[in-house]
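The following record pairs a protein chain with its ligand, 2-acetamido-2-deoxy-beta-D-glucopyranose.
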Amino acid sequence: MLGKTTPNRMRGSRNNDAVHKRRVFVTVCATVLMLSLLSIYYSSFFNSRMHHVHGDGSSEEEREWEGASKVVRRPKPLADDLSMDDTGADKGEADLDVDTINLKEERPDETKRKADKYEADDDKDDSDERTDNDDQDASAEDPKDEEGIDEVTLKTFPVCDSRYSELIPCLDQSLQKQLKMRLNHSLMEHFERHCPPPQQRLNCLIPPPPNYQVPVKWPESRDEVWQANIPHTFLATNKSDQHWMELQGDKAIFPGGGTHFHDGADKYIANLGKMLGEADGDLSKAGKIRTVFDVGCGVASFGAFLLPLDIIAMSLAPNDVHQNQIQFALERGIPSMLGVLGTMRLPYPSKSFDLAHCSRCRIDWHKRDGILLLEVDRLLRPGGYFAWSSPAAYRETESDRQEWNEMTTLVRNMCWTEAAKEGQTVIWQKPLTSECYEERLPGTHPPLCSSVEDPDAAWGLPMKTCITPLTKYNEDSLEPWPQRLTAPSPRLQELGIAERTFETDTFVWQQRVQYYWKQLKINGQIAHNGVRNIMDMNANFGGFAAALKEQDVWIMNVVSPYGPNTLKMVYDRGLIGTLHDWCEAFSTYPRTYDVLHAWDVFSKVDERGCSIEDLLLEMDRVVRPWGIIIIRDNASMVNRVGKYLKGLRWDHWSKDDFEIVEDALSHGDEKILMARKRLWQPVESF
Ligand SMILES: *[C@@H]1O[C@H](CO)[C@@H](O)[C@H](O)[C@H]1NC(C)=O
Ligand SMILES: *[C@@H]1O[C@H](CO)[C@@H](O)[C@H](O)[C@H]1NC(C)=O
Ligand SMILES: *[C@@H]1O[C@H](CO)[C@@H](O)[C@H](O)[C@H]1NC(C)=O
């Protein structure tokens, strides 16, 4: 601009040379002045950051963290050197210092305003921080919002009554009573899913229990959790002799016991390994056993102590008399979900598990023509094991004898063979091929299932009393763990998926997840809260989970029952997951996941005519306070979802530092939203 106007002005001047020299001088001076001002500004900015780092005592970290939710920093393009190695954790912490303190500088002075109906309650002795509310955040950030996400609250959601603080909408026995459902208790139908009809949905936010705290971080959480988070003491008193759980001060402690392994699950697991011929007790058999199904799992101590062997267990139990066992398991950070062997197929494809386990799980396998054992048979891969610990295996009473006889007849007819037996425990093995089935006498029960039935369809289908036949893909072709994670699944062909497609998917998710992880680190999530329980709400081939292999996390891979059943590939890769329809509530307790990843979930739910509001409320129920929600979807859908953040009390966490990096799975107008659920408490009414 200067260059254009200067010649005009100079034209009328008498002494062009002198004027020119003066102008040059002024320009240089101005530039120098500006530069020095800038440098002073930046150095003081930096100093004041340092001051905060060192000046403020121990509560500082807590407050920085509080602030971290509003960190909306400069764009961070995807760098080449993103590393997810362990040393990165320290880097993350360092990043936290810089970014969050930076934020404190920018935050408006706290005023004593409180939100109408609630207040943040994360840090009781820090009253300044808790007065922070939406309006301030919005006014502080809105000018920077160039992405077009309009955070105007279209709808506020009321807070549910605190008696719903543990609500699981599709597994709610009080609703069953209210609706007078006729459910057969001897078939466990009352522990199966029965979702509320639309008019019975509670369209409100589930509050945490009083004094809820940020959960203990993994790995400490394996052994202890906050009592206030799950205020149920039944297991501690009722199972005290079996060491499931003990109370100590404000913690619940898990000594690692179970009904059949009072002395700890680790010794029991080593013994199972020895029974299978591993002198060192390595139950994984050098990577051949990776996916385990533990039914009637209690607080999932069995699953917890399999983890050091690189074995991952899907632990399953209903919300029965053993109050909140799955809630404890998830609070501990152990993979598990609610479910029961009743009348419906479990939501997993056939040939998913390398080993199934039931120790004193109180399931009458030999009854009802073996229907429940036949369901386990469906879930076991060819050559898979079933480990059963029961008094019937050794006790000499008449009823135990009879149960044992019926059980052995049943498994013989199912072509299982005894791999080992010792004391209370027997391990059977499912056949590798269909040879034995073909040699059975005509009319032998149970019969083979019709081959037109899809053995992998498992959503809302009843179990049947028949043996799932083995198909031509049944040869034991899986690589051992960890090779099977990246090896193309032998069932790719069944799904008509090219190996190339699979490899691209693996690569793309590696890149995407590195980016997410970097964001979680930068924003302090990993350093501060820990990230342990993750759900990939649309797992597809399991690429998201595979990319997190080196992290100390586990992923519940969710696949829709209405698309290609890629969940079998997920299991073939040595990962775990479940079928689920996101028009309904998930089979888990409130506040059980640290991260929810929703890739194209909203647009699919919307296409199917279900409500995205319901989905948001369900996600809010499932995610822990301070947990992260990552939504990756069409831009228009992400913008729509963005309008609900405030009503949900989620902080928009990633506003303008997220750059979509186009890749082979991008579909043009894609956008990412990262939000974080706040920790709040309902305000008591006086
Ligand atoms: C529940 O199911 C069992 C087994 O099928 C059956 O014998 C019983 O009559 C059923 N009970 C009711 C109340 O329907
Ligand atoms: C544990 O609970 C069951 C079921 O409520 C009850 O029958 C049993 O007596 C209890 N045992 C102990 C030791 O409290
Ligand atoms: C989202 O984008 C995909 C790919 O372009 C498209 O198939 C789908 O219909 C879109 N969904 C919505 C809700 O716009």
